[in-house]
Each structure stands twice: as structure tokens, then as C-alpha cells.
Design a protein that fits this description.
Blueprint: H1 2-5, H2 8-30, H3 36-55, H4 59-70, H5 72-79, H6 81-92, H7 104-120, E1 124-128, E2 142-147, H8 150-156, E3 167-171, E4 174-180, H9 195-206, E5 210-214, E6 221-225, E7 228-230, H10 235-247
Parallel strand pairs: 1-3
Antiparallel strand pairs: 1-5, 2-4, 3-4, 5-6, 6-7
Length: 263
């Protein structure tokens, strides 16, 4: 009897069930906090009712649900394509090998510019590209491709500049684009956070970019990376965090197992 219990076929069955449960749980975590989360729970209820109606021989209800579930995949892809895209990007992050390093000089220039803007309460967003190419998220913007400097960043975010409302994108230590419009998050934010914070969080939800936000109202410096916010940073702390983030030293990357990130 023990041989039957611990047989290879039973082991494969248990492993199969465990793997499916793991994938389903991981899948739900990928959609946690998105619009699709409630929809997925609703579909789960419909599937349960579908099997109940089949068992209870409720023919009309079973026919209706059969037709609905037959086209549900296309419906979900069309309605929730943005959420599916975000989930797939997050799933692929741990396997990404592309990483763009920034020089110490460029990080110091960005920090000096952020500190100066903070003192004068000049609002702005600086996006530092890392592993994920930002080209697909920058439909609007003026290509500059210039050497990064504090003075150039300050001139772009000068209130008389036509590009001051958009974001500056840094690629490989150079200013790639300016005046870029970023995707906005749909999350509810505190009243102290404005459109720039909403844009920074929106981009961080879809990419691994490091995003620096300087508040126009308070002068507060915020670092946004991978859907996490580090608020009220001083110049020294900001520079230290950027060095860790972009050199990979001392920076904790997101875990491939979502529930272990808080450990």
C-alpha cells in the first residue's frame, strides 16, 4: 500500500497540482491592485456557477454561461490589455539581463540639479532609463541627445521653457529627450502629490526606470522606482540611493516571488 501512495505517478500528480496552484497564486498577485483584479474574482464566481449549473442540469443557465465563457478570453484581452501588459512586464523583470549603468559624474549632476530646483521650488521630473527600453512609453517629447549637466536640466525646467511641464529622460549618461509626457497611474494618491507624482508612479508601474520628482509646491524630492516611493530625500541621500540603484551595489532588486519582497 505504501508503494502505491509513494508511487511516481502520485508524485507527478501532486507536483502538477502544486505547480498549478503556485502559478494561479502568482498570476493573482501580478494583477493585485489593478482594475482586472475584481474582474478575475467575478470570472471565478461565474466558473463555479457554470459547473454547478452543469451538475444540477440547469440547461438554460448552463448554455448561457457556456457561450459567455467561450469568448471570455478575447473579451479580457481587449478590455484589460493595459493591465495584462503591466503584469507581463513585472513577470519578465527578474529575467532581464539589460542594465544601463550611469557614471558617477552624471548622477552628481542630476543630484545637484534636483537640489537647486528644490531650493527654488521648481517642479520637474527626471527619468533615468535602466533595463527596460523607454521608447514605447515616450510618444511625445523632443529628442536632444546632449551631454548631461546641471545647467541644461535647470534650463529645461525653467518656467519660461516650452518643455518645463514634461519629463527629462536620461539614457546612458546623456539627456535623451525632454518634454516627455508619461503615463498616469490610476491609484489614489495623497493630496500632497500632484500630477508629476502620478506620472512618475505610472511609469514605474510599467518599467524599471529610476524617476526623480521635485515638487513645485513644497520643493520635496521624491525617488520613484519599481512602484515604490522614497520621499523627502536630501541631496546626499538621493545621490547615495542612485549610486546603489544604478550600480547594483547594495540595492535589493524585486524578488521573483512577489510575497517575499517585504522580507
Amino acid at each position: 500500500m505504501l508503494d502505491q501512495i509513494f508511487s511516481f505517478s502520485n508524485f507527478i500528480t501532486v507536483a502538477d497540482i502544486a505547480l498549478v496552484a503556485f502559478l494561479l497564486y502568482w498570476f493573482m498577485l501580478m494583477f493585485k491592485g489593478t482594475r482586472a483584479e475584481r474582474m478575475l474574482w467575478g470570472i471565478g464566481v461565474i466558473i463555479i456557477v457554470y459547473f454547478v449549473s452543469q451538475r444540477a442540469e440547469l440547461l438554460t443557465l448552463h448554455w448561457i454561461l457556456s457561450n459567455f465563457l467561450g469568448s471570455i478570453a478575447i473579451f479580457l484581452i481587449v478590455v484589460f490589455q493595459q493591465d495584462i501588459r503591466k503584469a507581463l512586464i513585472h513577470m519578465g523583470k527578474p529575467f532581464s539581463t539589460r542594465d544601463v549603468a550611469a557614471s558617477r559624474e552624471s548622477l552628481e549632476e542630476i543630484t545637484r540639479a534636483a537640489a537647486s530646483m528644490s531650493k527654488t521650488r521648481t517642479g520637474g521630473i527626471v527619468v533615468i532609463e535602466r533595463g527596460i527600453d523607454l521608447a514605447d512609453f515616450l510618444d511625445v517629447g523632443v529628442e536632444i541627445d546632449a551631454k548631461l549637466s546641471k545647467e541644461l536640466i535647470l534650463s529645461i525646467f525653467n518656467t519660461s521653457s516650452p518643455m518645463h511641464d514634461g519629463a527629462v529622460v536620461v539614457r546612458a549618461g546623456r539627456i535623451f529627450k525632454a518634454g516627455c509626457i508619461l503615463p498616469l497611474t490610476e491609484k489614489e494618491l495623497t493630496k500632497s502629490m500632484g500630477t508629476r507624482h502620478r506620472a512618475a508612479i505610472g511609469l514605474s508601474e510599467e518599467t524599471d526606470a529610476a524617476i526623480i520628482v521635485v515638487s513645485e509646491e513644497t520643493g520635496e524630492i521624491t525617488l520613484v522606482v519599481e512602484d515604490a516611493l522614497y520621499v523627502d530625500l536630501g541631496p546626499d541621500r538621493l545621490l547615495n540611493d542612485l549610486k546603489k540603484l544604478l550600480t547594483g551595489k547594495g540595492y535589493r532588486k524585486k524578488s521573483i516571488i512577489p510575497w517575499r519582497e517585504g522580507n
